[in-house]
């Protein structure tokens, strides 16, 4: 299983430096810290699991990994009879982004403290920290343990984080983002709610790439100004460079708990679009073993039966196909919109779908 | 500040269609230099002539298709420069022009141009002139003998090793080393086996071709030649003569690996290459021409979508075996 994952995907230049090795910068509005509506914990070590979850709820902590409330995640894990392992997610497999790795090493005591609380709340025996292995250009050495907690190096090529399960666990593993763990620690020890989030500001027209702790609700533009711009950017992206969203109005786009990066790029004037020559590079990197070039053609011609035949619903939108495409086609975006189309049709008429699908497959095969 | 909306991903690999085509052009230039060494300036002039014809055809076809006129796309140039290398250096300029024009105007553009052609244009062009002008295409000048640069060739013409093999005889003249270096009568570029292999290495390292295809194809051909020699010679000698004669290695490196007309995935390419190898060797044995690679390639091109379809069925099974059904799936 894992073997397939090792063979497919991308090895990307990481560009995590210099943001990662610099100190955390702050962009915090004075007086924005908010105390919790709970009595202070006198002895944090003696808190019961339920009390920890109550702290997470009261502090309004959102897990930056999957944008779920941390309290909900811990409660669900507890309801299922406890998980075997809690993993602190600092995978950060996308280039430029180091907003989990940075805080993990700059605020290690808080991160590990939060992990211990989360493990207690979820009823887990084992704890671990997950870090992506394919990062080579780091100035800082990633140790094997952090305060006695094992750091697991996640192997494999680029979409390492998008995988549905932790390679060794599958069931019984709860992945919690490092930033959420830091906020949990602060809620219990400092008695403050989550009003900030950690984000990486980087890209080829940012003067001082850095990891930032910014108050939620400030605009993306303020974060960019905090780090300085070398030139007018042509695109500003929220999230990683592979899956992030390009925004048009940074001055009115707020930073939220799930903003993991703000990237500003110059326009690339040499980028041109060609027509597909069928080199098959997209199919050779797709981590889901799909054939993006055929999906793209089917989607352009609106052949729903063919889209089903090529398993469009298995696309995870990681963007590897668009990255390698020598024709610079918008493969990933087109396939994702086709996926939404097919899923919409499935919802509309779930009964007749399988019959129709096979019939259409046979007809459409001729035309491609 | 003016921002534009973009789709993710926001970083792209630097390779483009153009850089892939340019890689092939670079290695073709190396082959032209070898041809210049063996046959003098006529080899280079044939190449320039072909390139000129291809540019004219390209512009005319784009006008007819109402596409934007530009010379940014180099794929026609690759086809045009490839064709003279498959022909003898003595070939008439008119024959080269006919081959290039047929390749572009009939084989490539009616199907929609770059990326849409069903058949390899170079193979189509070669097949056309092989049928129309067999005398000009299958008689070769002797290497290192001076050729007149302009006009029709007037010197001595000989047959190549593939003709002897076709007739069931044992090829003479030319030891292993001179065959490796291309010092034998034959197509202008295809005889330089060593250089062609170096070209393959470059293309594979640059990631422009699937390495599986030429290797599996030549492996199959070698196995077939070793098992069923056409002439009364030992299997090992048969392997060398079959592989080094005609356009086999040249075709495997430059024509079989054409991304447009071959299957898309590496797994399908392997099966396709083995199939193409068997078909080529059958054509060589039972076909009417001494050099039949182009004909067998055209047949395989027509069947390539079937290989893709079967491969997709295989990968559907792979995908289903590997994953637990997704939670939100209805079926």
From TrEMBL, chain A:
Residues 267-296, 306-334 form the 4Fe-4S ferredoxin-type domain. InterPro entries: 4Fe4S_Fe-S-bd, 4Fe4S_Fe_S_CS, Ion_transpt_RnfC/RsxC, Nuo51_FMN-bd_sf, Soluble_ligand-bd. It holds the Pfam family Fer4_7. Residues 358-368 have a biased composition (Acidic residues). GO terms for molecular function: 4 iron, 4 sulfur cluster binding; electron transfer activity; metal ion binding. Keywords: Iron, Iron-sulfur, Metal-binding. GO terms for cellular component: membrane. It comes from the Bacteria. Residues 346-368 are annotated as: Disordered. This is SLBB domain-containing protein.
Automatic annotation (TrEMBL), chain B:
GO terms for cellular component: plasma membrane. Keywords: Flavoprotein, FMN, Membrane, Phosphoprotein, Translocase, Transmembrane, Transmembrane helix, Transport. One of its GO terms (biological process) is transmembrane transport. InterPro entries: NqrB/RnfD (IPR004338). It comes from the Bacteria. The chain crosses the membrane at residues 20-39, 77-106, 118-138, 185-203, 215-233, 239-257, 269-287, 293-310. This is Electron transport complex protein RnfD. It comes from Harryflintia acetispora.
């Amino acid at each position: 299983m894992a073997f397939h994952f090792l063979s497919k995907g991308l090895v990307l230049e990481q560009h995590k430096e210099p943001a990662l090795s610099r100190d955390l910068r702050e962009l915090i509005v004075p007086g924005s810290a908010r105390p919790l509506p709970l009595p202070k914990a006198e002895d944090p070590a003696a808190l019961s699991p339920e009390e920890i979850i109550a702290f997470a709820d009261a502090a309004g902590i959102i897990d930056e990994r999957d944008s779920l409330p941390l309290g909900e995640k811990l409660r669900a894990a507890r309801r299922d009879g406890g998980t075997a392992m809690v993993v602190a997610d600092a995978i950060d497999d996308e280039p430029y982004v180091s907003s989990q790795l940075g805080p993990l090493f700059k605020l290690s005591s808080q991160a590990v403290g939060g992990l211990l609380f989360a493990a207690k709340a979820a009823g887990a025996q084992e704890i671990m920290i997950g870090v992506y292995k394919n990062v080579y250009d780091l100035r800082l050495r990633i140790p094997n343990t952090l305060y006695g907690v094992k750091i697991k190096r996640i192997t494999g090529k680029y979409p390492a984080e998008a995988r549905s399960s932790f390679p060794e666990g599958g069931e019984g593993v709860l992945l919690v983002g490092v930033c959420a763990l830091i906020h949990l620690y602060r809620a219990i020890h400092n008695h403050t709610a989550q009003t900030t989030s950690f984000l990486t500001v980087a890209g080829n027209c940012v003067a001082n790439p850095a990891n930032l702790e910014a108050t939620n609700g400030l605009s993306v533009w303020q974060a960019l100004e905090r780090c300085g711009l070398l030139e007018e950017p042509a695109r500003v992206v929220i999230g990683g460079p592979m899956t992030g969203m390009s925004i048009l109005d940074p001055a009115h786009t707020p930073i939220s708990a799930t903003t993991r990066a703000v990237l500003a790029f110059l326009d690339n004037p040499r980028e041109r679009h060609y027509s597909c020559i069928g080199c098959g590079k997209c199919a050779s990197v797709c981590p889901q073993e799909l054939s993006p070039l055929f999906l793209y053609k089917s989607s352009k011609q609106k052949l729903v039966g063919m889209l089903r035949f090529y398993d469009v619903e298995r696309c995870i939108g990681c963007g590897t196909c668009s990255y390698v495409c020598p024709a610079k086609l918008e493969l990933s975006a087109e396939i994702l919109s086709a996926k939404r189309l097919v899923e919409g049709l499935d919802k509309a008429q779930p009964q007749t779908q399988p019959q129709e699908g096979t019939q259409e497959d046979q007809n459409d095969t001729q035309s491609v | 500040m003016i921002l534009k909306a973009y789709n993710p991903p926001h970083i792209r690999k630097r390779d483009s269609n153009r850089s892939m085509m340019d890689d092939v052009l670079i290695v073709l230039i190396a082959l032209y230099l070898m041809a210049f060494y063996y046959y003098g300036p006529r080899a280079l002039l044939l190449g320039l002539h072909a390139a000129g014809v291809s540019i004219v055809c390209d512009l005319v076809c784009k006008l007819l298709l109402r596409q934007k006129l530009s010379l940014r796309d180099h794929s026609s140039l690759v086809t045009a420069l490839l064709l003279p290398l498959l022909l003898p250096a003595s070939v008439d300029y008119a024959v080269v022009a006919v081959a290039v024009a047929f390749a572009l105007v009939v084989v490539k553009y009616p199907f929609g141009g770059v990326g849409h052609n069903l058949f390899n244009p170079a193979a189509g062009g070669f097949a056309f002139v092989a049928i129309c002008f067999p005398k000009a295409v299958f008689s070769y000048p002797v290497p290192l003998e001076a050729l007149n640069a302009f006009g029709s060739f007037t010197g001595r013409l000989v047959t190549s090793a593939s003709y002897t093999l076709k007739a069931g005889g044992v090829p003479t003249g030319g030891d292993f080393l001179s065959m490796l270096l291309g010092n034998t009568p034959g197509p202008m570029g295809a005889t330089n086996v060593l250089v062609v292999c170096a070209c393959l290495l470059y293309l594979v390292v640059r990631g422009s071709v699937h390495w599986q295809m030429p290797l599996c194809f030549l492996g199959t051909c070698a196995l077939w030649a070793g098992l069923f020699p056409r002439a009364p010679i030992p299997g090992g000698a048969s392997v060398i003569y079959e592989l080094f004669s005609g356009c086999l290695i040249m075709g495997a490196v430059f024509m079989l690996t054409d991304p447009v007309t071959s299957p898309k995935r590496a797994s399908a390419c392997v099966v396709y290459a083995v199939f193409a190898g068997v078909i080529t060797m059958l054509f060589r044995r039972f076909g009417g021409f001494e050099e039949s690679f182009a004909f067998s390639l055209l047949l395989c091109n027509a069947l390539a979508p079937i290989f893709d379809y079967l491969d997709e069925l295989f990968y559907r099974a792979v995908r289903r075996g590997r994953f637990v059904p997704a939670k939100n799936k209805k079926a």
